[in-house]
Design brief:
Order of helices and strands of chain A: EEEEEEEEEEE
Distance between the termini of chain B: 41 Å
Distance between the termini of chain A: 34 Å
Shape of chain B: globular
Structural class of chain A: mainly beta
Largest sheet of chain A: 7 strands, mixed
Strand content of chain A: over 45%
Structural class of chain B: mainly beta
Order of helices and strands of chain B: EEEEEEEEEEE
Largest interface: A-B, 19 and 24 residues
Oligomer: heterodimer
Strand content of chain B: over 45%
Shape of chain A: globular
Number of strands of chain A: 11
Number of strands of chain B: 11
Radius of gyration of chain B: 13 Å
Largest sheet of chain B: 6 strands, mixed
Chain lengths: 113, 109
């Protein structure tokens, strides 16, 4: 009964191809986030959303775009994937925009060859 | 520069051997400190929020404490199922949330 799911869970793609990761939540939370997790780094915020069609950049947003057309769905797109975007991507939701109490999905492992 | 450092990077304990994980931070102003547990191949799971020095929170064998410069996650009589990576995150008054790199805990029977 996970309230937040990500798809795909695993993806291998080639440099230069577009990739879209999907996050779906059933909790009606207003705030959603995309993070990436890499060895030697803490989780780093890519983009976040504070409502339908309202999004903003995080600290590592270059090369990524997001869209949120419905409360329950938050999409992360890599327009032209690069090897430096090989990572594990986590979607999260929160009850407030500036909360540190986040509920994470199980992650999407992306490998860019 | 706002910074969060967790130590040790890895910790191996025998079942029942109590220990502590450290999260030290440097931020312009603290709004909150958060602890998460992350199992392999899973997303982080929220454990605790601490807001001010002197505050403590407990959950089963875990107790989190906070001072003005660091937080400790004390694990009392750990069990193998406590094995996980424990993440600390600090929210500054700028609202930026900064995650540490985590402590990987292994508890052996």
């Amino acid at each position: 009964d996970a309230g937040i799911t990500q798809s795909p869970r695993h993806k291998v793609t080639e440099t230069g191809t577009p990739v879209t990761l999907r996050c779906h939540q059933t909790e009606n939370h207003r705030y959603m986030y995309w993070y990436r997790q890499d060895p030697g780094h803490g989780l780093r915020l890519i983009h976040y959303s504070y409502g339908v069609k309202d999004t903003d950049k995080g600290e590592v947003s270059d090369g990524y775009s997001v869209s949120r057309s419905k409360t329950e769905d938050f999409l992360l797109t890599l327009e032209s994937a690069t090897s430096s975007q090989t990572s594990v991507y986590f979607c999260a939701m929160g009850l407030a925009v500036n909360t540190g109490e986040l509920f994470f999905g199980e992650g999407s492992r992306l490998t860019v060859l | 520069e706002d910074q969060v450092t967790q130590s040790p990077e890895a910790l191996r304990l025998q079942e029942g051997e109590s220990s502590s994980l450290n999260c030290s931070y440097t931020v312009s102003g603290l709004r909150g400190l958060f602890w998460y547990r992350q199992d392999p191949g899973k997303g982080p799971e929220f454990l605790f929020t601490l807001y001010s020095a002197g505050e403590e929170k407990e959950k089963e064998r875990l107790k989190a404490t906070l001072t003005k410069k660091e937080s400790f996650l004390h694990i009392t009589a750990p069990k193998p199922e406590d094995s996980a990576t424990y993440l600390c995150a600090v929210q500054a008054t700028t609202d930026k949330l900064i995650f540490g790199t985590g402590t990987r805990l292994q508890v052996f029977p």
